[in-house]
Design a protein that fits this description.
This protein is an alpha/beta fold. It has one domain: Cytidine Deaminase, domain 2. Helix content is 26%, strand content 28%. The chain has 3 helices and 8 strands. An 8-stranded mixed beta sheet has the order 7-6-5-4-2-3-1-8. Strand 4, helix 3 and strand 5 form a beta-alpha-beta unit. The longest helix has 15 residues. It starts with a helix and ends with a strand. Bound molecules: zinc ion.
């Protein structure tokens, strides 16, 4: 009984924890810097494990200075490996705005925002309610 309980807890913990590849995160920072002061936006893709974010997908016309354009549903390919969104803020706050949260609720489980100066300490990940998620960089 004890063993069963322990296993169950372990599974639940694994289920909640997202990971992101360092090279993917670096690409996000680089892209955000290159379009600054405009906003960079894209979609996040997981690998076969379904837990590791390994790729950023750009949609046509996404680097327009209006990150909200990417969330237009007709632009989004039907692809279950796309699990969330990424966008940059030209400001120093990587917390989602009210408009961001409204968009998060339409699509995706994990949403990353990076803010100026777009580095290891200027980003955050959030769930569809805008609650901060703990993501491990691997
Ligand atoms: Zn935003």
């Amino acid at each position: 009984m004890l063993i069963f309980k322990w296993r169950k807890n372990k599974v639940e913990q694994n289920k909640k924890r997202w990971k992101i590849e360092k090279k993917c995160l670096d690409l996000i920072f680089e892209s955000a810097r290159s379009v600054y002061p405009k906003e960079f936006a894209g979609l996040l893709r997981v690998d076969d494990s379904k837990r590791i974010i390994s790729e950023v997908v750009l949609l046509p016309g996404t680097i327009s200075g209006d990150s909200h354009a990417i969330f237009q549903m007709h632009m989004r390919p039907i692809d279950f490996s796309l699990i969330g969104t990424i966008h940059s803020h030209p400001s120093y706050s990587f917390y989602p705005s009210g408009a961001d949260i409204q968009l998060f609720q339409k699509f995706g489980k994990v949403h990353i925002i990076t803010a100026n100066p777009f580095n290891d300490i200027s980003w955050g990940a959030f769930d569809y309610m805008g609650k901060k998620l703990d993501i491990e960089v691997i």
